[in-house]
Amino acid sequence: MKKFLALAGTLSLLGCSTSNPGIPAQGTYISHITPPASYPTRPALQKLIFPHNSEIEGIVVDPTITAYMEQIRDRLLAQWPGVKPDAPIFLSVDEQFSSDVSPAGGMFINAGMIQYFSDNPETQSEDAFAFIIAHELSHILLGHAADKAANQKLEQRFSGASEFGTMVAAAAGGSAIASSAKTALLSLYGAHTLSEYGGFPSWSRSQEEEADTLAVDLMAKAGYSVSVAETSLDALNTADQRDAARAELKAKAAQEKAQQEAEKNQKDNLTAAVLNPILTPGFSLLGSGLNYVGKGMVYVNLDHPHAAERRAELSHYIDRNYADLIPILHKAPFQKWIRSQEVQKFLHESQAINEVADMARTKNWQKTHQLLAGIGSPVRSSQIWLYFNILTEAGLGQNRQAIADLQVASQRDDVILQTVLLWADYLDSQGKTDDALAYLAQEQKLFDDPATLPKQIMIAKKAKKTITVDELVVECQMTGIDRLQQQCSAASKS
Amino acid sequence: MKKILSLGLLCTTILLSQAQAASTPTVSGVFEKTVHAFAENHAPLGQIPASDLLNQPVAGIDEETGFLKVQTPKGLVLVARAAVTTTMTAAAPRETSCSYIGTLAASGTGSSSGFASNCKAGAR
Questions:
Q1: Which of A111, A280, A326, B91 gives a 20 to 30 Å CA spacing to A152?
Q2: Complex-level ipTM
Q3: Which regions form coiled coils (chain A) (predicted)?
């Protein structure tokens, strides 16, 4: 009973963010949805694009390319009966066949997704591509991204508050504190119960199906042909099948794992090896949390709803609701766009910067310098280009230029987390401890993510700012994020 | 000599037919007992029995609509791709090397469900 009450209480705190009844057995999905009264206001760029800026790829901004996608978005959005969110579109040099949405409502289209349509002329219609835009837009319209972000933070607060309360109780004793500790323990129990029963689910499967379904509704209302909506799901299905076949080759898988481990070890040491010489002794980037994954992983993981199942669900829905329609495909505008110089240039440059990343593993800085020089706008003005350019300059001994470029990159609103940590380390290495701490605190607020706390603790500890260290450690504990807590703990003892 | 040539031609024809049959995609499944069908000029034909489509060859794709051209015993019809499953295989996306550096986001707040899974999952 207590378990149930704890679960019920916590669920009531969670609330219900969308009035989404789920996909109906009869009729269209869109006709059953009550749109929310409002969407969160568009935050500053740094929060809008998070977590893409916590990865090295960051974003690429090129209105000459995204303007066409925005036209498609607006056409779809016009069919939505409720308030229209901003849903800005950004590009990513990521080679994966995927697209994404940030918790704050930004849409991200990978180079790998655009590349697929470029490679396969038979897929080239605005209708097929509109499904991608409609799918991501639907995640925003249905509040999925915001839900996930809110739930994760709530769960962290539960766990963090409980652990902190228990910690205080253990240290101080006394009936009043013990009572708080009990409350904290109950909350912790509640949170764990909730996880156990799916109170904080990833929702990925139902979210994907809902987004697929609403996407089709928006497409149909906008006059697009839903008959090609499944083009991208078919491609995913082929990739799934390919991956499944490969998964059977155990020997190969074992080899790939070994390769990953080797590359991970190699990459963990890369940045430090390159950049340490430009900084003063005592400065190390080893603690900056670089986390290389390495090549050779299976293309599409099986943790997303299998494409075949998604396709079957969607086919059934389309067949049920739109089988009597036979609209003409919109081919010409898409073909003009996908074959345009701007799009092809972006795809070419995305490949090139990925080659730079591969080459950086070998520390062949002459070669990365050569490759980087050949990359033009828009990728040249992105954070990933700046990052590898800084590494290259440092690797070639051009320290002054590397630091100047690092400073420029660190002040931009599309800055990536790696660059933030590098700049803070540099400031610290120059004895500018207060500047480093202020910069990290500011960036933590802008990213709305506590990833920089271990670095702040490390710098404060080195500067013997005991009170600051204590405050930061408490702040870190309150996040309730195990991995981060461990990093903070290690930093405070460093 | 003529007999030998004729026999050779027959064998070639049979082999070609077999190869063609093996490579021609067919309708492998349906979702409902009836399927909306259209004529080649896109005129609606109403609903036809699913059995008319099952195992029938897919003769191609209608360029204007993207609908499947299915050769049935009663003639060529157009059906929506969503209305049936076929033995056709879509082109796969390019293989990638995946990413080199995982997210540094402490909260682990990933973006919402991406269109496909992220092969950087190990870092998230």
A1: A111
A2: 0.74
A3: 237-273
